[in-house]
Amino acid sequence: MEELIACLRAITRRGDGKPVMALSYGGVSLSEKDARLQCDSSGQSVKLGAKEYQLMELFLRNPSQILPKETLIERVWGYESDAEYNNLEVYVSFLRKKLTFIGAQVKLKASRGLGYSLEADA
After folding, report:
1. Do 117 and 105 touch, CB atoms closer than 8 A?
2. Which of 21, 26, 49, 116 fits as disulfide partner to 32, beta carbons 3.0 to 4.6 Å?
3. Phi and psi (nearest 5°) for 62?
4. What is the tens place of the pLDDT at every residue in 7-36?
């Protein structure tokens, strides 16, 4: 009986058992657990806000792929949202500043008339 109780205590200390998601590309990784964006080479990290996190997750899931502005707005703000391109541009600017701050080797590239993509520095 004592062994069973010890096993139950050990299981409850482990947490919820869900694997923590971490996306990475070009030496940058994004942690689902604490919404931190980290540069692997410098070791610097920064906490992202909710919208920043959602945008960065989309870019990391689709690296080097141009994501249209409409798609980004629909996925982050929702289909029925009143968000405009201006809102998206502000959050992309925030992400660019944070990528620079951590010394990342990836950039958010604007493709005029098309959208944005996450590109690794050559």
Report:
1. no
2. 21
3. -130, 60
4. 666 666 665 555 556 789 999 999 988 999
DSSP type of residue 62: S
Summarize pLDDT for 46-103 with one digit per residue, the tens.
Answer: 999 999 999 999 999 999 999 999 999 999 998 888 888 899 999 999 999 999 999 9
Give the CB-side neighbour count of residue 74, counting CA atoms within 13 A.
Answer: 6
Residue 26's alpha-carbon distances to 70, 80, 97, 98, in angstroms, are 25, 34, 17, 15
- What pTM did the predictor assign? 0.80
Could you give the domains of the chain? 19-120 (1.10.10.10)
